Amino acid sequence: MSAAITLSPSSALIDVDRIITLTGFSAGAHVTLTATSRQADDTVWQSKNRYVADSRGNIAIAEQAPVSGDYQGVESQGPLWSQTLQTPDAAAAFSGPASKGPAERITVWLAAHDDDGNAATAILEQRYVADGVTRVALDDGGLVGALYLPSGSGPHPAIVVLNGSGGGVNEARAALFASHGYAALALGYFGAPGLPAYLSEIPLEYFERALVWLRHTVKPAGNFVAVSGHSRGGELSLLLGSTFPHAVSAVVAYVPSSVVHGVLNAGRPGDGRFKPAWTLGGKPVAHVWENNAAQDWSIVDALPEPRRQAQAFVRAQEDAAAVNRARIAVERIAGPVLLLSAGDDGYWPSSRYAREVAQRLQDAGHAHAVKHVDYPEAGHALQAPHVPTTQIARAHPVSGIVLTGGGTPVANAHANRASWHEVLSFLGAAVAANAVVA
């Protein structure tokens, strides 16, 4: 019997767990499994893990821990999330093609071999776009992004997907939402062609127009339009729900803030950290760093890179007047709210912020469902399931400062998978509740 790698399924959405089995090796053989992928940004990632074959010469990744390698313990998806970023030279030597776009499939090449020359290969495909999902580019009246529509005539519930302080357009997450039945608008608001280059004085009316456009375009089932964002996008999602409660049916806030912030490290050059990020009616939206007697960025700026900056945000919360002035009026949100936070968040104290939001809603007797799910050992970068999670620190896309997001690769991988299932469950319940009311 020749060596083989069995994948079930070999091609599926990225959020689908894979069963990886190695067969046809000698009993007790030490077998190295290498997983290599080229991501949408053209970077190459690779994991190497070594296992011992059982008495039948088989290795079930879901049941066996590697004896050495890039992860420890029994982790069924370990070969995928434990991939590490390769050097440019190693990437140049890798012949695998790049993914076809920001929301297209990722190909993972699997290769297994033992010390006796027995070897096997297989290809695993991670897709964001299900069969029948279509993409419509958005460049209408200054709105920039991409609309992903599920298969079938609909109507479908809708969701707006927002990135954080890195800017750009999160097409991958929107495509995955569409693959689960949502008309998903990946909306850019800075850092993309046709948009401002920096997170400086972005009018909230821009997002209100996008919500109107989305309703007019897709005519969503039950008029349901949720808003979801990550980090500054999480702050923004709560802010939009409170500012335009008539237009937002539900909020999904990944590692959000409970208060409005200034531009921080994503503003125009020379603006510093404390210029306004958002405007409404042509006026700046008050933020927590204005006249904040407690703020002290020196405690972060003095750190070597990679920097953990969360302590500056904790310090700013000590000025009660500034916090009250900048607090997001979440009690005005007219729908259910899901808060996802990370207990080891290196960017800002998302667990504390999420608790404050949940408490404010509870104190206000919020008429809709509120759920806060915290991942105590995870860091800031809650992503899609089964992506590489080994790069804890990275340069900020705007400032270039190298920051650590916190968490560990295994904790972040588990949080990615669990949080995505929480989001799908929450949205399903929110759509169902909206249909009853409608």
- Please tell me the total number of domains: 2
Tell me the strand percentage band: 25-35%
Q: What structural class is derived from the secondary structure elements?
A: alpha/beta
Q: What value does the Rg take, in angstroms? A: 23 Å
Low-confidence stretches: none
Question: What is the CATH superfamily label of the largest domain?
Answer: Alpha/Beta hydrolase fold, catalytic domain
CATH topology name of the largest domain? Rossmann fold
Measured between the Cα atoms of the first and last residue, the distance is 61 Å
Please state the overall shape, judged from the principal axes of the Cα atoms: globular
User: What is the arithmetic mean of pLDDT?
Assistant: 96
Please report the total strand number as a whole number: 23
Helix % is: 10-25%
CATH architecture designation of the largest domain? 3-Layer(aba) Sandwich
Major beta-sheet overview: 8 strands, mixed
Strand order, sheet with most strands: 11-12-14-13-16-17-20-21
Q: Mind telling me the CATH class of the largest domain?
A: Alpha Beta
Number of helices: 10
